[in-house]
Amino acid sequence: MEFRIDRSSGLPAYLQLVRQVREALRLGWLGPGDRLPTVRDVVARSGVNANTVLKAYRELELSGLVEARQGSGTFIKAGLGSTDPEVMAALRTRLAEWVREARAAGLDTEDVDALVRSVLADEDGDQVTAGEGVAVR
Amino acid sequence: MEFRIDRSSGLPAYLQLVRQVREALRLGWLGPGDRLPTVRDVVARSGVNANTVLKAYRELELSGLVEARQGSGTFIKAGLGSTDPEVMAALRTRLAEWVREARAAGLDTEDVDALVRSVLADEDGDQVTAGEGVAVR
Amino acid sequence: MEFRIDRSSGLPAYLQLVRQVREALRLGWLGPGDRLPTVRDVVARSGVNANTVLKAYRELELSGLVEARQGSGTFIKAGLGSTDPEVMAALRTRLAEWVREARAAGLDTEDVDALVRSVLADEDGDQVTAGEGVAVR
Amino acid sequence: MEFRIDRSSGLPAYLQLVRQVREALRLGWLGPGDRLPTVRDVVARSGVNANTVLKAYRELELSGLVEARQGSGTFIKAGLGSTDPEVMAALRTRLAEWVREARAAGLDTEDVDALVRSVLADEDGDQVTAGEGVAVR
DNA sequence: GTGGTCTAGACCACC
DNA sequence: GTGGTCTAGACCACT
Which residue numbers delimit the HTH gntR-type domain (chains A, B, C, D) (predicted)? Predict the structure, then answer.
């Protein structure tokens, strides 16, 4: 697994790490027993400080998703999204098609993002996971 | 326009405000000449501090999207690459269908979010606007 | 770099800071890679509040001139159309001569300032950077 | 006399008005007995609010430069820079030459401004009237 | 110890 | 009443 930290996003680095592990679990890229990259590894590849990585891993451990084993690494303990991989793949394919259409219509990534967040917010006042929703009267 | 602040998202409140204005512009909910809610209004409705709102509005002003007029309010100055509303609506409808399917398959909001981010990240290494991306080897 | 804040000038302190950094860039006193004084440093030396300094640095960052790195400081990211230092020095010398003359003729600083602004304003209706201009019919 | 207000300069509008009157006095454009434009006039031409103009005129009156005569207008009471007009003109000409040179060397207005402020600041620690000075160690 | 967010409250400038 | 500046101080994120 490879982490990508965007220093300009405003989201704290350690939360970006936590989030990326959770997403990998949801998507089935990671599962119980898998080993997370070592702290040293993440430091080398992403440039963040070791304490930042430790903080992220600690947080994951506290939420029960991960288990640190002294001397051997950090391992996934529990899964997250237990959706059937095939169903997931099918949904993904259809989503990708939609994105292609959107691109063709001239939308850039931020447009797409805005639309997605807006649609999710519309579902009867549901919370959008990333944080907000917009409503205009 | 109504703002929603999610204190648990990790994203700074003022950036949530900035983002929501930008999204409203992208979606065509707001356009040049429109007035943003007054600082005091936002304070009353969202509970954040006045300085936080001021900071958000100031960043919007510096980026050229908005113009503050002392004594009268803050106004939209420029649009943000707005796509044809009809095309937008069509895309939105199709997206909403997809989301319904995803829901039916048991995905929760965080799953949907992960999928979207993953698909956007896949498009030839493009950056995801919200900040990160996940790549698994 | 050392900042000087004049509380009686009417110009907001944070703008004085922004301006002084810009001027230092223009004059070649500062260049890419250089580190600005820490926020705490400026606070200690100039007496303004930390938030005021932060605000100035943030504006510089948004305008792309500077980059803040948490834990290590704020650094110059880009130059500002720097003219050849020798040419600059020559112009400076000649200007200094002119100022000496003006002083000898009895002009005080405010007179000199008024003259400069007036000459700059005269150049085909160009805008004076500091804000105003005077035209008498 | 014509006022020019720059809303983006950061300097309060009423101070811009005050400053412009003072400059006109310094440069000899205005002298004792001259009448300032009426408040109504300034409002019409510059777009600022009447109270803002009144505040500026009041401030000028408090500093003894101007005198308001009920029903007839506001008049210059005292001069400021009493430098010989011919000397002033000569200095102005030489300054204009210098500015032309600077322009030819590629400096823009902000560069020129920075140089001037820097030279004025250098005169043995003298205060620059507009507010600041920059010193780099 | 570095930058950054947020709050609370005072006071200013402008309409 | 509108936006804007500044202060003071608490707490967070990162090196």
Answer: 11-79
Establish whether the CB of C8 is closer than 7 Å to any nucleic acid atom in strand E.
no
Domain for residue B7, yes or no? no
pLDDT, one tens digit per residue, over D85-111 is 899 999 999 999 999 999 999 999 999
Region C63-91 average pLDDT: 93
CB-CB neighbors (< 8 A) of C115 in chain D? 26-27, 88, 91-92, 95
Question: Is pLDDT of B123 > 90?
Answer: no
The owner of tokens 């965080």 is B110
DSSP string, A77-133: -S-S----HHHHHHHHHHHHHHHHHHHHTT--HHHHHHHHHHHHHHTTTPPPTTS--
Report pLDDT for A123: 82
Count of domains for chain A: 2
d(CA B16, CA C76): 27
Same domain, D72 and D94: no
pLDDT at B130 over 70: no
Task: Name the residues in B72-131 having a C-beta closer than 7 Å to nucleic acid strand E.
Answer: 72
What does the pLDDT read at residue B3? 97
Mutate to test the interface with D, among C95, C99, C123 (most CBs of D within 10 A): C95
Residue that finishes a domain, picked among D48, D76, D104: D76
Output the CA–CA distances (angstroms, integers) from residue A97 to A28, A91, A103, B89, B93, in the order listed. 21, 10, 10, 17, 14
Would you place residue A84 in the very low, low, confident or very high pLDDT band (cuts 50, 70, 90)?
confident
Based on the domain organization, do B68 and B93 belong to the same domain? Answer: no
Domain containing residue A111: 83-137
